[in-house]
Structure formats: C-alpha cells, structure tokens
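Why do we care about 3D structure at all? Because function follows from shape, and shape follows, mostly, from sequence. That is the central idea of this module. The next example makes it concrete: a single protein chain, its amino acid sequence, and then its structure expressed as tokens.
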Amino acid sequence: MHGLGNILQNAMQFATTAVAVSVEIDAHIIKVIVSDDGPGFSPGLLGRLGEPYLSQRGEEHEHLGLGIFIAQTLLERTGAELSFENGMVGALQGAAVMIIWPRAALAL
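And the structure:
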C-alpha cells in the first residue's frame, strides 16, 4: 500500500488538473496504471527512474528523489514489475506508471 500510495502522491504533485487510475484484472495478471496530465517524466531521467537520489524537482524543493526508488522497491517485493512512460499510456497524456503483478503473487 505504501508503494502504490507514493506513486499516487507523485502523480498528484505533478498533475496539472487530473490523475487517472485504471485497474485491469484477468486470469493471469493484475495491472494498475497511474497517469497524470502533468509535464511527464524528463526524457533524460526516464530510463533511470527507480534509482536512489534521482529527482526531476528543482533544488529549491530540497528533495532527495527517494520516493520512486522506495515505491519501486516495496512493490517489487510483492512480485510487481514497474514501467515508467510518457504520453497516452493511461487515460491522460502526462507521466504514467504501470504496475503489473502476476495473479499468483497476490493470491491468498
């Protein structure tokens, strides 16, 4: 829950006006896509997201850039795979984070 909450919080902070969450479930996977209508991920950082101490926020925010790293680590411990993209991946045009779990990883 903390990992997913962090992804949602980041989307809300960078969104211009909207955040969308979609969930797809089938016999094999559970997929959650969090997208926003903000500026998207910086192209120079896109391939490195999830590394510690990496942030696209300005220095005036005094931000360490650990949020996505921690969220990814927590979610991967549950069996999830994350991908970070820009453009129309979810319902909106900004940044999007796709989280996919094998159904077996979350089975009780």
